[in-house]
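Exam prep: given the inputs below (a chain plus magnesium ion), describe the expected output before reading on.
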Amino acid sequence: MTTPLDPPPAPSDFIRDIVARDLQAGTYERSRTRFPPEPNGYLHIGHAKSICLNFGIAREFGGVCNLRMDDTNPTKEDVEYVDSITEDVRWLIDGWADQTMGLKPAGRTPEPSEHEGRRDFYLPAVTGASALNLEPLYASDYFDQLHEYATRLVETGQAYVDDLSPEETDSYRQEGKNSPFRERSVEENLDLFRRMRAGEFPDGARTLRAKIDMQAPNVWLRDPVIYRIRHATHHHTGAKWCIYPMYDFAHCLSDYIEGITHSVCTLEFEVHRPLYDWILKALNLPRALPHQFEFARLNLNYTVMSKRKLMQLVNEGLVNGWDDPRMPTISGLRRRGVTASALRAFAYHIGITKYDGMTDVSVLEHVIREELNRTALRRLAVLRPIKVIITNFPEGKVEECQAINLPEHPEAGVRNLPFTRELYIEHDDFMEDAPPKFFRLRPGGEVRLKYAFIIKCEGIVKDANGAILELHCTADLGSKTGGPTASRKIKGTIHWVSAPHAIDAEVRLYDRLFTVPEPDADGNFKQHLNPHSLEVVTAKCEPSLREADPKSRYQFERLAYFALDKESTPEKLVFNRTITLKDAWAKEVKKG
Ligand code: ATP
Ligand code: MG
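Solution:
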């Protein structure tokens, strides 16, 4: 029907310029990038920026991009996260690959090669123009290779086993002081490293450290720990290992093993880059080396984004799980009804820079609205109903009114809305003591019911407490499209549904999770939760919404955009408000 909003085919930024330059110069035959999440939480919209950059480069330059679980810390990681990450990346990327290039993930046939009599490690063979590998790879699958590389550093006198405690290691590094164990012989180091692996020592008793320079101005180069003892089972390798490589050691070598050319990460890794390069150089590796490039992470206001804080919201029950539609997680945004194409468009829209900044959440909201305005099917639903009786309309009669599914897209067709004597309109669309500029329904006033008749309010029925029970109206029966008075000019048009035909739906009205732009500015983000971030109402919906489909998006006319929630059933429909039609917060700011 309509095409979802997709970003321009080739954005440009300093990272893509580097890739283009390296390909043109023949430094690499093809670009290989990767997205390397640690499976210790769910992905958030910041990760979406990184995913769109890394997979986007592969897509645009005919390159390869891998999804790699950076799973070197057994105690914090879990298969639940591996599964959610895989699902989220697939959701975000899947259709994208097909859309432009019709590519399937490439076959990964290992090609062993030899170097100086040693095994060099497998480089996946890739066929096709470009390959977005959505089958996850695991850094932990390289533990044997990484262990071999570490052993090679020991053999060449570039790594040593240290007996300092973690606290001593820290203070020695701060002071720039050599460890008393730094000058052990290669034989002793090999023996101790072997015994570390064999499980002879408890956690924390010894570490393997790269022998670089304890006085280096960059503290990351002060003999960093590259292996530590952890008697813990790993979600992917089980009980096989009791020593685990540190992030800095595993990352550059995993990149090398996968033949990564451009290792793109966020700015906080800039200070690690000399170490990244040192390790690769120290091993005297035969193939072209990967290079690290840093860009500014996404910071978004009115939310928090670190996994640690999101985990607190989940664990303390402040939201309903990682995929709560108020969460900035990819799964939360998806559940809320945000489409993958809107997230990709957002990622492209904000661009890639080298300077940290804060992105206003209204930018994201604008991109979502822009797409939904073009794609969401129009429907009528009343969130806070008030009954209307059309006193001059016969009981039992049903008049079909034709409604348009998608303005500007006639191919999306029309549908019939039943009009009857008893209707619901929105409570807000009636006012008893209305100010002059109120162009909806008032006593004695007229309003047009969208796609149907003009009605006039003739009376109000109230209960003993003065609450309105129903409105009595008359309809101008010639005012429907094609009728003699159809062209009568009436200022206001409101939505409605036929009471006997209406179906009930639970509607979850979501708003921003926090009331302030930078919830964690004072380190107290939980104090700034928006108490009104979720309101649940029972709406009266037009009957065609019985066939609502989880893949479609709906605009409840004059209200907002909605999508079915995963908890929705044919017996009990549940809709999530993805986003309002207009930015209600912009008004708040003006008012304030
Ligand atoms: P967090 O800080 O939110 O816990 P993380 O950096 O620990 O996230 P990783 O799983 O290590 O999460 O991240 C995987 C990749 O995503 C890394 O390359 C990281 O640089 C990138 N990334 C993480 N957060 C953002 C962000 N806000 N914007 C852009 N990229 C990000
Ligand atoms: Mg990280």
